[in-house]
């Protein structure tokens, strides 16, 4: 189907926490299916007790302990989390429909069920040596464990030419798209790095992300903890 423009992006499994009891399946087939999913969404978690939710998670962990498990509230989850290729980011490579901040930084981050790290570096703040090379970026991405690092997305300049690229990294896979639209390039002319990292327990990765993306140059990096919903 790739010839028709379709590609396999990511595989999402949705768990109905309210009606999960009685449908548990720990067979070999179920485990194999669970191993091939990129993210597990815990739906209707707010409608069950903490104890019942723990039981659901225990059963899911019997099938797959490594895949990220994210609570989905009444508003759902951000499409940025479950779709590896952010459509807004992709479109801005060729046309102009949104501001850079809208596409990279979630304005509703306070509602997130995941931790965020935001990294910003302007061109004049970058280390004097050179921009991050593609090989260096790929090597950095390979150190990001997919069980904790769900998404890395945004804009980054690469190579000696310092061309602006869109980075989309999802559950261990990534794409790089060079920005071609002139208006976007003009708006981003001072952007060296503008990246958001999404995941869990990101405090332990903060320095690694900061150093890996800023490469010894100046810039701003901050962590925004996940918003935890009470039952």
UniProtKB/TrEMBL annotation:
<protein>
    <submittedName>
        <fullName>Cobw-domain-containing protein</fullName>
    </submittedName>
</protein>
<dbReference type="InterPro" id="IPR003495">
    <property type="entry name" value="CobW/HypB/UreG_nucleotide-bd"/>
</dbReference>
<feature type="domain" description="CobW/HypB/UreG nucleotide-binding">
    <location>
        <begin position="6"/>
        <end position="68"/>
    </location>
</feature>
<dbReference type="InterPro" id="IPR051316">
    <property type="entry name" value="Zinc-reg_GTPase_activator"/>
</dbReference>
<dbReference type="InterPro" id="IPR011629">
    <property type="entry name" value="CobW-like_C"/>
</dbReference>
<dbReference type="Pfam" id="PF07683">
    <property type="entry name" value="CobW_C"/>
</dbReference>
<dbReference type="InterPro" id="IPR027417">
    <property type="entry name" value="P-loop_NTPase"/>
</dbReference>
<dbReference type="Pfam" id="PF02492">
    <property type="entry name" value="cobW"/>
</dbReference>
<feature type="domain" description="CobW C-terminal">
    <location>
        <begin position="128"/>
        <end position="203"/>
    </location>
</feature>
<dbReference type="GO" id="GO:0005737">
    <property type="term" value="C:cytoplasm"/>
</dbReference>
